[in-house]
Amino acid sequence: MPSIRHKITFGYYLFAACIIGLAVFAYANLRFMEQRLDWGTAVSSLLDTTLEMRRFEKNYFLYGKPEDAASAQTYAGAALSLLEENTAAYREFAATDDLQQLREHLERYSERIAPLVNMPGEYSAARNAIEADIRKLGHDLSASAELISANEHDVMRTLLNTARRTVVGLLIAVTLFSLVLAHVLTWIVVRPLRRLERDLKDIGQGRISSLPARSKDQEIVSFTQAFNHTLHELEVRRRHLVQSEKLASLGTLVSGVAHELNNPLSNISTSTQLLLEELASADHDQIRAWLGDVEEQTERARRIVASLLDFSRDNPFVLNPTSLRSVLDKSVMLMAAQRPKSRCEIINDIAPEIRIDADAQKLQQVFVNLLGNAIDAGARKIQVQAPACMSEDNLEHYVWTQVPVTGECGTDMLCVAVNDDGPGIAADLLPKLFDPFFTTKDVGFGSGLGLYVVEKIIRQHNGSVGVTSTSGGGTTFLIRFPRRHATETMS
Ligand code: ADP
Known about the structure:
The protein is of the alpha+beta class. It is built from eleven helices and nine strands. The chain has helices spanning 4-63, 66-85, 87-91, 96-117, 125-204, 218-278, 284-312, 324-338, 360-377, 392-395, 450-460; strands spanning 320-323, 345-350, 354-358, 381-386, 399-400, 413-420, 464-469, 475-482, 486-488. Strand 7 and strand 8 (475-482) form a beta hairpin. Residues 369, 373-374, 377, 420, 422, 425, 433, 438-441, 446-452, 475 line the site of adenosine-5'-diphosphate (ADP).
């Protein structure tokens, strides 16, 4: 499996290979230059030897000393040996024919000067006969040696220029290669991290529920697996929390509902008793009225039981076009059953035509929690209003759990306000309200999960919830749903 570590290591190896290749090339280049310098030395030696030979030759013809002729001959022999030993070097700077000619000239020179070694220095006809020949040969020899030397200088200069250009070219190539390598490495390593960052943001905003496996890099795969596992664990715990909050409200609800069921049951019982007692004497209309009562009360009991079942069930999240007003009606009914002694007036100011793509059961829980809190706080009147548009300035007074849904009220979003005239909440407590387990109620009366669950449900609907309150001045919860979840139709 590929991994980021392997990719970085591979990049380093590639760079090291490039540097080693460069070093090998530079070393080979130096060796080559060294060899050329050796050849240059051989060329200089040939020129020096030839010039020495000529110097002694000239001295001989000037002063007539036989030892000068002997030295000239020795130098001619030395030049010949140099020619033999360094043929490969001289071939670099002169044509093979020229070298052959040089060799022949040197041999002839040695031959011609040999008799002079034993000849007295004075002028003689014999010496005169070979002087011109020797001088010409000497002149040709030094000219050839100088030509080889000049060629060698030219070749060296060209070589140095080429070497300079190669070094500059290599420097540019290595710089470009390093830049490209660094860029590619950064791209290979950073790209999956950027994707990861984007996916994490999407998870934070609720667009996706787990990290998709986008990269095959070992580190990213391990991280994704561990992160998804943690997300799964958190989700399981969240569900437990929501369920336990539900069970807590269910506890209160059941005792209220038991009381609430008592009324229709005793009404049914009364009507049935009357029916049994008066069956023979009562007229048809009377009997129908009693039976109607029984049916009506049975229906009432059925509705109460149905709401209770609805509320207690842990259904999966399903969006359906839902009438917001009727959800609130059902919640109010549950509230009445839950807190039968409450004298709080709940005003349903939700426009009947408002329908919203929502999970009705979950929304019911939102209203139950909000209404329950307001009643518990001592509110005498709760007003639930939708649409509840307000200016953006007013929104500044709200504490939001996340960036609020924005846009044109009615066009882009639907706003629902739950307002009560209770004692309000101290400003420093507002940011903590939606935290799990935050409660100001006595032990056994509050779980601190009600508003946490409210926030989760609204978030599931892609909405946002904010709260504003002043101590002694009531509390308002504002819920904003994005427009695609809210549709207004005439019902
Ligand atoms: P719980 O109701 O179990 O305490 P919640 O999360 O529902 O948990 O509420 C947290 C706290 O927020 C409550 O304990 C209460 O102090 C405060 N609160 C919520 N709604 C209101 C309200 N309408 N008026 C006054 N206080 C409120």
